[in-house]
Amino acid sequence: MQSLDIAHIQTALSDYVVGHRIHYHQILGSTMDTARDLAHDGEREGAVVVAEEQNKGRGRFNRVWVSPPGLNLYFTVLLRPEPGQLPYMNMAAALAVFDTVAQVPGLKPAVKWPNDVRIGGRKLSGILVETEFEGDRLAHALVGIGVNVNLDVSEHPEIADTATSLRSEAGREFDRSEALHSVLMNLDTWYARVRSGESLTEDWATTLETLGKQVELRWRDQVLTGLAESVDDQGNLTLLQPNGERVTVVAGEVTSQV
Predict the structure, then answer these.
(1) Residue 98, phi then psi, degrees to nearest 5
(2) pLDDT tens-digit series, residues 12-69
(3) Percent of the chain scored above 70 by pLDDT?
(4) Sign of the Cα pseudo-torsion (203, 97, 169, 161, in order)
(5) Which three-class secondary structure state does DSSP give residue 1?
(6) CA separation, residue 82 to residues 32, 79, 196, 233 (Å)
């Protein structure tokens, strides 16, 4: 197992917001939980918690995130955006991973609304954003990112039909340190645009494979079907239902209809 070269990455990102400080662990329950503790202790914005292995890693809807040691990337970035910038945290993270993957010759990533980065319909990366408020003040946002880098998905039957990795797609092993450096650098770039007052919706929408497709959406204990028509500036999905009515969905589980 090749360990991550944290010292090199941290030095390279020393003048950036994202990645100027990296807390590195061999094993954690969850990088999200550790980052939350650091946030409560007053850690600076842009700090990153990285683990070689998680034994309580989770994705959206509290799903377990398969986290074997030394093969992938599991990390959480502590950010302190303004409340109105929150919708763009998910977009910035998805775009950061998308840009990294798109640099690999032959790979064509896409984003499944709202934030799964996929290749050929198989999940490569998942993103989880958790926030905490103190009264009306946004205390922090935690952006958790998992990227399957050198995972052999065939060794994990529970995800073999739905997941992929950079190695599986490109047929070679990848330097995880280079991959982590790239994602953090890209995230810093997108986050800087958010902090300057820009919207990321247009850039993010161009990566969405969901738009223009007939989808089945599980949302608020309902199952909705229709055409994924568009997204608004907050990242909400507009669904055109068979009866001609439109519904705006804030978050949910989207799967393509057969």
Answers:
(1) -55, -50
(2) 999 999 999 999 999 998 899 999 999 999 999 999 999 998 876 544 444 555 667 8
(3) 92
(4) negative
(5) coil
(6) 20, 10, 11, 16
> Of 74, 20, 28, 75, which Cα lies nearest the Cα of 44?
20
What's the farthest any 2 CA atoms get from each other in the chain?
57
Bridging pattern class, strands 214-219 and 246-249 = unpaired
Contacts of range 107-110, beta carbons closer than 8 Å, 24 or more positions apart: 107/166, 107/169, 107/170, 109/207, 110/207, 110/208, 110/209
Q: Determine which helix (DSSP H) or strand (DSSP E) holds 214, and give its type and residue range.
A: strand 214-219
* Cα distances (Å, whole numbers) of residue 212 to 6, 96, 219: 41, 23, 19
Confirm if 76 and 143 have CB atoms less than 8 A apart.
yes
The most confident of the ranges 60-64, 76-80, 217-221 is: 76-80
The whole-number pLDDT of residue 26 equals: 93
Exposure string of 42-53, with b = 16+ CB inside 10 Å and e = fewer, is ebebbbbbbbbb
Report whether pLDDT(114) > 60: yes
Q: How many Å apart are CA 11 and CA 247, to the nearest integer?
A: 47
**Mean of the pLDDT values across residues 103-130?**
95
How far is CA 255 from its chain centroid? 18
Contact in structure between 20 and 11 (CB atoms under 8 Å): no
